[in-house]
Amino acid sequence: MAFEIVKQITQIEEEGDRLIKEAQNNALEIQKRAKEEAKQIIDRAKSEAENYYNSVIQKYEKDAQKDVQAILNENDKVIKELNEISKDRLNKAVNLVIERIVNSHGNS
């Protein structure tokens, strides 16, 4: 009878050890899966952040290009106006010189 009790205690201890090892293995497996899942979440978040960053950069580059084009168009307009002013002043100066030459020779 004592032998039976010792045998049962040994079996219970062995079963307890087996359950502990199984629980530890399960815990390690859960931890491994959690790390893999966390890595996937981080990788996905990085990818989404990079895509968002690229889309924002593209949007602002497009907006900047529109602004640059508007500035270039305005500069072209100002250059044309300045050229017209210069031509007008040149014509007035030429006419003034011709008038003085004609008037000075006409008075002689």
Tell me what you see in this structure.
The protein has 108 residues and is mostly helical. The chain has one helix at 2-106. The termini are far apart. The model has no long low-confidence stretch (mean pLDDT 90).
Give the arrangement of secondary structure elements:
Elements: H1 2-106
Task: Provide the helix percentage.
Answer: over 70%
| Straight-line distance between termini | 157 Å
The number of distinct β-strands equals: 0
Task: Tell me the strand percentage band.
Answer: under 5%
Encode the helix/strand succession as letters: H
Largest sheet at a glance? none
Structural class: mainly alpha
Label the overall shape: rod-shaped
Mean pLDDT: 90
Q: List segments where confidence is low: pLDDT < 50 over at least 5 consecutive residues.
A: none
Taking all Cα atoms into account, the compactness measure Rg is 46 Å
**Number of helical segments with 4 or more residues:** 1
Keywords for this entry:
0% strand, single chain, 97% helix
Summary of the model, kept short:
The protein is mostly helical and 108 residues long. The chain has one helix and no strands.
